[in-house]
Amino acid sequence: MKKKWASTIGIAGLCAALAMPVYAAETETRPATHHHDYSISGFVDYVELQKSLKQIEASSKGTVQVDVAGQSFEGRNIYTARVGTGDKVILVQSEIHGNEKTGTVALLNLLKTLSGNSAQAKKIREEVTLVFMPMLNPDASEADKRRNSMTWADVVEDYPQLAGAKPSWNYLDRGVSQSYDYGKNPGFDVNRDFNPDLSYVPEATDFPGASNLPGWFITPESQTSRDVYKSLQTEFGNVDVFIDLHHQGMYYVAGTNDPVTLSLSAQFVPDPSTPEGAKYAEYADNYNYDLSRQLNVAAYNELQSYGNSKFTNISLYSQGLDLPGTALGSYALNGSGTVLFEVKGQTQSLGQKEKGQLVKSVERGLSAIVESVADGSVEKLNPEDYEKIPLTSSRPAN
């Protein structure tokens, strides 16, 4: 961790049968609407985030610790908020993609609850240490876009050994979106810039890479997430749980006409102990797929408990993935139980519409995971129940 409260403010396959995209695929179709046709004023921006974190820290009277973990490419602070003193470690991050904003609101709400004086909050804090990174990519958040604002030239300046390499495959320097002109505003998909080798140093021979290959930690945002993860490993020996909060497009619970409210997933790389995952064999002793499935089941069961409501429209995201360049894939190989949250829509397609319901879905799912880890009940869940969760489909049943 770096300095506390700076004095100045600086500037995701397989599921083809269901026609699912491969975890936030680069070819995802964007709506033809203009980027600013939908208001995002109801979400939390960078300045509001800072104010909220400072207020929560102050009112918690020492229960919450807010730190600057690093800086974005444009120099904005990337914050962590830590609550609890238990031996079980949960790391949650939001807005690695800046147009996926409901997770940030949910984390601030949950932080307020966990820092309170209720008996349940106190018990959770005794059992669990929670570290939230509520806005990992503040530059993209401020611009309401997916990618950061770094160029390949910036990367080569930082890593001269890459001068002769082709730009990485997750770098977009062409206009492919009607909602944001990346031709004038190139950048990297930060969630393809992770590597299971947390000490990896970029080498020209590893570029341009591909979606099923590890990333490189060339962006300051991925470096910051990695550094927080490694610091927790050093302190506790392991990060028990890692949760990544995202948005997706508009999909359906397979076999129904029900629009998906939230997709979950536990699987981002093949099991290193299987022939399919043999290339990750060095990580086999750490990989804990059963825990990942149990965590997902905890969230699913909680949301299903609300009966006949949109909270029950929960499904599994694409399975059979091999994405070691994502935070979820890299951290799963390093021993964390992992959970992906993908609420429906993005700011370009929904704006604030249904914001309250989507935020509450994330809050409730997260709370169920935190509580089940704290009291140990997650360990009693049958991981095979994960396989009973319906898949996500791009088409309604009829």
Integer-rounded radius of gyration = 20 Å
Number of helices: 9
CATH class: Alpha Beta
- Fourth-tier CATH superfamily name: Zn peptidases
The CATH architecture comes to 3-Layer(aba) Sandwich
Mean of pLDDT? 88
- Helix percentage: 25-40%
Structural classification: alpha/beta
* Topology pattern, helix = H, strand = E: HEEEHHEHHEEHEEEHEHEHE
Q: Approximately what portion of the residues adopt beta-strand conformation? A: 5-15%
CATH topology: Aminopeptidase
Strand order of the largest sheet: 1-2-4-3-7-11-9-10
**How many β-strand runs?**
12
Number of separate domains:
1
The major beta sheet can be summarized as: 8 strands, mixed
Globally, the shape reads: globular
What is the fold's blueprint, element by element?
Elements (H helix, E strand, L loop, with lengths): L45 H15 L3 E8 L5 E7 L4 E7 L7 H13 L4 H9 E6 L4 H6 L8 H7 L12 E2 L14 E2 L31 H17 L4 E7 L4 E2 L8 E4 L23 H16 L9 E3 L10 H7 L3 E7 L11 H21 L16 E2 L5
Parallel strand pairs: 3-4, 3-7, 7-11, 9-10
Antiparallel strand pairs: 1-2, 2-4, 5-6, 8-12, 9-11
Care to describe what's here?
The chain has 398 residues and is of the alpha/beta class. It has one domain: Aminopeptidase, CATH 3.40.630. The chain is built from nine helices and twelve strands. An eight-stranded mixed beta sheet has the order 1-2-4-3-7-11-9-10, sandwiched between helices. Strands 5-6 form a two-stranded antiparallel sheet. Helix 2 (102-114) packs across helix 9 (355-375), helix 3 (119-127) packs across helix 9 and helix 7 (289-304) packs across helix 9 (355-375). The chain starts with 45 loop residues before the first helix and ends in a 5-residue tail after the last strand.
